[in-house]
Write a structure and sequence with these properties.
Elements (H helix, E strand, L loop, with lengths): L7 H9 L6 E6 L2 H14 L3 H7 E5 L6 H8 L9 E6 L11 H4 L6 E8 L8 H9 L1 E4 L8 H10 L4 E2 L1 H11 L3 H14 L6 E2 L1 H8 L7 H9 L3 H13 L6 H19 L6 H8 L8 H9 L2 H18 L9 H13 L1
Parallel strand pairs: 1-4, 1-5, 2-3, 3-4, 6-7
Helix pairs in contact: 1-2, 7-8, 8-10, 9-10, 11-12, 12-17, 13-15, 13-16, 16-17
Length: about 350
């Protein structure tokens, strides 16, 4: 029954059509889709009345016994066609592979959902091969940064809300690839929308997420790309005055990721818009704007030199060959090198 590379959307659609598998093994680095799928099963397989007697959620610790999970799965439903057993934090289970004993002969009236986060089962494990034969195995990989704008716009579309491109970029880069946290911040923005307004702006993000729309890493990055010395130094001064929310190490890491991607773009076999989107694994055409602007204003050689300087700055900020330099000294030297 298991399919290779099955998506969460396909699983949701099957459940909506009441095409249930006896076992779902949900595993991977990205917890968001594992949580959403287990929640969807919990909410949609049984009615509210049936859930009282036929739905069990087990939160695993190192002390949880596999035998207890198996015994729970082998119970028969009461006044319902199915019982649902959801095993949360299954990565904590010791001797988890012993669940293969049940997976080899699962009860057809039980829907067992195994949520294994922060990794995936070794392909040599008996449990994995057993579930692949009778149930569904879903792997939730870590979402790449280039996919975050697509996630944000798609998530908001389901709530009939849109978002400015700049606001979308601010959310993607300030919150990062923790999708559970990102979804929570987006929900907060939706609730904060004034009555009758259905578009999230940079002002709303600044007000409710705590990201300055004028003095942030993206504005600094744009100033560096445009070689706007005055603006770059103004933003850098603001960041120095607000170091707790703008730590230099994070600024350097962000710039390193950006210029590394620019370097990758220089070696794209197809430098058309669609070619670069594919090569950089981006979803939206506007995501290319900063990269193509940097390619126009910096040569490949200068980009490589900037990457080297960023590595040096990162090491110094962490105390390596730092000498008497302050964080401010290191950052000013770095920004000067990029601009000149």
């Amino acid at each position: 029954m298991a399919k290779a590379n099955i998506t969460h959307k396909v699983i949701v659609e099957k459940i909506r059509r009441q095409e249930y598998a006896p076992i779902y093994l949900l595993m991977g680095e990205e917890a968001y889709y594992i949580d959403r799928l287990s929640d969807y099963i919990a909410d949609h397989v049984l009615t509210k009345d049936e859930q009282d007697f036929n739905q069990t959620i087990i939160y695993c610790t190192r002390e949880t016994a596999v035998a207890d999970v198996i015994n729970c799965a082998r119970r028969y439903p009461m006044m319902a066609k199915y019982q649902v057993v959801i095993v949360k934090e299954a990565q904590n289970l010791l001797k988890m592979d012993e669940l293969a004993v049940y997976a080899l002969n699962p009860l057809q009236t039980t829907i067992l959902v195994i949520c294994y986060k922060n990794g995936k089962l070794d392909g040599r494990k008996k449990l994995l091969s057993a579930v692949e034969k009778v149930g569904i195995v879903y792997e939730s990989p870590k979402v790449k940064e280039g996919m975050l704008p697509h996630f944000i716009t798609e998530y908001l579309q389901r709530k009939r809300v849109t978002i400015d491109e700049r606001a979308c970029q601010m959310m993607a880069e300030s919150v990062g690839a923790d999708l559970n946290r990102l979804a929570g911040e987006l929900d907060k923005l939706v609730l904060a929308l004034p009555t009758g307004q259905l578009r999230i702006s940079t002002d709303l993000v600044e007000q409710h997420v705590g990201v300055s729309k004028e003095f942030n890493i993206w504005e600094l990055r744009d100033a560096l790309i445009a070689k706007n010395v005055a603006k770059a130094n103004k933003i850098l001064h603001y960041m120095e005055q607000n170091a707790k929310t703008n730590p230099p190490v994070m600024t350097v890491a962000n710039l390193f990721n950006f210029f590394s991607t620019v370097m990758v773009a220089f070696y794209a076999p197809d430098c058309s818009e669609q070619g670069l989107l594919r090569h950089l694994e981006l979803q939206k055409a506007w995501q290319l704007n900063s990269y193509t602007a940097a390619m126009r204003n910096f040569s490949a050689l200068k980009t490589m030199q900037i990457i080297g300087k960023l590595r040096e700055a990162d090491a110094r900020l962490k105390g390596i060959e730092r000498g008497n330099l302050t964080d401010e000294d290191i950052m000013h030297e770095l920004i000067y090198f990029i601009l000149h």
